[in-house]
Amino acid sequence: MMERTLRENKGSALRRAEPLHLLKELKAILYLIPFLVPFSVFYLWPVLRGAWMSLHVWGIQGMEKYVALANYRKIFVNADFYSYLWNSFYFVLLCTPTVIILGLVLALIINQNIRMRTLIRSVFFLPYVLSVSVVSFIWLRLFDAKNGPVNALLHVLGLPVDINWLTDHRFVWWAITITTDWWSVGFVMVLFLAGLQEIPTDHYEAAKIDGANAWRRFLHITLPGLSSVMKIQIFYQIINCLKLFGQVQIMTGGGPGDSTNTMIRYIYVTGFKKDMFGLAAAQSMVFCFIMLLIAVVQFKITDRKDG
Amino acid sequence: MNKAALNIVAVLLALLFAFPLLWMFLTSLKPDGVNVYTLGDWVNWSDLNADNYVKVVRDSQILRWTWNSLVIGVLTTVISILFSSLAAFSFSKLPFRTRGIFYVLIVSGLLIPTEAILIPLYETALHLDLIDNIWAIILPGLTNPIGILLLKQFMDGVPKDYIEAAQIDGSPYFRLWWSICLPLTRSAMVSVGIFFFILSWNNFLWPYLAITSEENMILSAGLPTFLSNNTMSLNLIMTASAIAAIPTIIVFILLQRHIVQGVAMSGVKG
């Protein structure tokens, strides 16, 4: 949508080649000022300032010296950077598909005429409005190796040993993924529901007459009908997963070892625990660059489709 | 799959989803050191009491944090909506040449998340002497351009005739906004407002950094202090979580329809 708005807007600005009336311009810009002031100070300025800071050695007291690209060199020769980057993308690989598939399944169920539909939909959606601290606290306790209900449930199902969900590097990402899925799947579901409602019912009627079974109807009508919502969701979830911080900060503290340290936590630790603001600013710039790269890919993909 | 089986699956899934919250409330009512582990613990309600709630409210500043969250949420939402509406009005109804440039500039705000500008944002807040001040949370909360995009779409739907008729009467721009566009986009403003409020209420990373004293914290950023506080037992942590969750759940139940609609709108369009 963002891309589309940009494009539409460009079009209309070109069409209307009006003469420049200074007073008219100023009057219109006046209405943008209230938004533009905080936007400039707390968004545009920090972006530029971050680029500037990244070229310096910068402590909590302020600028110390100009070092050109030395901070970036430090980042790229450090093996930590690649492992945190990999951690972030590993989480994307786990969380994005699971949350989208689960969200789609829930949306398909809710879209049927089942009993207590509204209540069940609310139950699925409710976790989304809770704050990340509440969600992380709950799952921190649920995943407790000794007294946690998750292991209790697995014992009932016949698992003989306790799983150290949050301290075993083989399971810790799954614990974070389950937590995140539970928290945000309601959002995905609601968007798919909105998408499902826009697919015309006569397509299904026609397919039924043609003898297509439920699976084929899903494959040939439902999925294509959801393709634009799907694309938006995939990119939205990728970006969301890359921003992972609260869950690991509260549930694992980046551990065991460094196995759940992510890009954002890396920036946080470098900046606020080690007081190396310049280096952290350079890391932020790398993160910004990754975000912009994803936006470009998204732009290209939606562009091709919309023509 | 037939309808009955689907119903059963749906109910089972709903129970699974509700489980963590039910468990949280149950544990929050159990005395220190008592775990809700086996099925027996679930049905044993004889030892339930509200002592934990009394203790958490007495020993921590959780009510104060709730109040701060509320104040910050309301201020951020109201100011955001007004500013976004003004800008949306300008983009939608006022023809001006530099419109495209400003629009691209503002939409670019969607590209880079707060997480990516943490360090310079902190530095900026430090310079403006905003650290440990609630305005350090409110002001950066006003930079989200999604409100402008959404409200602009709704303002585009306000018929040109209304605007032109009012202009012939000689109404100034401000009157066009205040007495025509604002009332006609009221329901969109409610949806966007709810979305902004949830964002603010659940905002974690930035308040976690920008607020340093316990009395100025908001709920989401204050809760983790329970972890480092050794005098708090594990059940009390669940009580604190429950206290933080209760207002959200009540508001959700009351405004459910608007919330779902607002979230769907912002998500599909965003």
TrEMBL record, chain A:
<feature type="transmembrane region" description="Helical">
    <location>
        <begin position="171"/>
        <end position="196"/>
    </location>
</feature>
<feature type="transmembrane region" description="Helical">
    <location>
        <begin position="28"/>
        <end position="48"/>
    </location>
</feature>
<dbReference type="InterPro" id="IPR000515">
    <property type="entry name" value="MetI-like"/>
</dbReference>
<dbReference type="Pfam" id="PF00528">
    <property type="entry name" value="BPD_transp_1"/>
</dbReference>
<feature type="transmembrane region" description="Helical">
    <location>
        <begin position="89"/>
        <end position="110"/>
    </location>
</feature>
<dbReference type="GO" id="GO:0005886">
    <property type="term" value="C:plasma membrane"/>
</dbReference>
<keyword id="KW-0813">Transport</keyword>
<feature type="transmembrane region" description="Helical">
    <location>
        <begin position="122"/>
        <end position="140"/>
    </location>
</feature>
<keyword id="KW-1133">Transmembrane helix</keyword>
<keyword id="KW-1003">Cell membrane</keyword>
<comment type="similarity">
    <text>Belongs to the binding-protein-dependent transport system permease family.</text>
</comment>
<feature type="domain" description="ABC transmembrane type-1">
    <location>
        <begin position="85"/>
        <end position="298"/>
    </location>
</feature>
<keyword id="KW-0812">Transmembrane</keyword>
<dbReference type="InterPro" id="IPR051393">
    <property type="entry name" value="ABC_transporter_permease"/>
</dbReference>
<protein>
    <submittedName>
        <fullName>ABC transporter permease subunit</fullName>
    </submittedName>
</protein>
<feature type="transmembrane region" description="Helical">
    <location>
        <begin position="276"/>
        <end position="297"/>
    </location>
</feature>
<keyword id="KW-0472">Membrane</keyword>
<dbReference type="InterPro" id="IPR035906">
    <property type="entry name" value="MetI-like_sf"/>
</dbReference>
<dbReference type="GO" id="GO:0055085">
    <property type="term" value="P:transmembrane transport"/>
</dbReference>
Automatic annotation (TrEMBL), chain B:
<feature type="transmembrane region" description="Helical">
    <location>
        <begin position="134"/>
        <end position="155"/>
    </location>
</feature>
<dbReference type="Pfam" id="PF00528">
    <property type="entry name" value="BPD_transp_1"/>
</dbReference>
<feature type="transmembrane region" description="Helical">
    <location>
        <begin position="65"/>
        <end position="89"/>
    </location>
</feature>
<feature type="transmembrane region" description="Helical">
    <location>
        <begin position="101"/>
        <end position="122"/>
    </location>
</feature>
<keyword id="KW-0812">Transmembrane</keyword>
<dbReference type="GO" id="GO:0055085">
    <property type="term" value="P:transmembrane transport"/>
</dbReference>
<keyword id="KW-0472">Membrane</keyword>
<feature type="transmembrane region" description="Helical">
    <location>
        <begin position="232"/>
        <end position="255"/>
    </location>
</feature>
<keyword id="KW-1133">Transmembrane helix</keyword>
<dbReference type="InterPro" id="IPR000515">
    <property type="entry name" value="MetI-like"/>
</dbReference>
<feature type="transmembrane region" description="Helical">
    <location>
        <begin position="176"/>
        <end position="199"/>
    </location>
</feature>
<keyword id="KW-1003">Cell membrane</keyword>
<dbReference type="InterPro" id="IPR035906">
    <property type="entry name" value="MetI-like_sf"/>
</dbReference>
<dbReference type="GO" id="GO:0005886">
    <property type="term" value="C:plasma membrane"/>
</dbReference>
<feature type="transmembrane region" description="Helical">
    <location>
        <begin position="7"/>
        <end position="26"/>
    </location>
</feature>
<feature type="domain" description="ABC transmembrane type-1">
    <location>
        <begin position="66"/>
        <end position="255"/>
    </location>
</feature>
<protein>
    <submittedName>
        <fullName>ABC transporter permease subunit</fullName>
    </submittedName>
</protein>
<comment type="similarity">
    <text>Belongs to the binding-protein-dependent transport system permease family.</text>
</comment>
<keyword id="KW-0813">Transport</keyword>
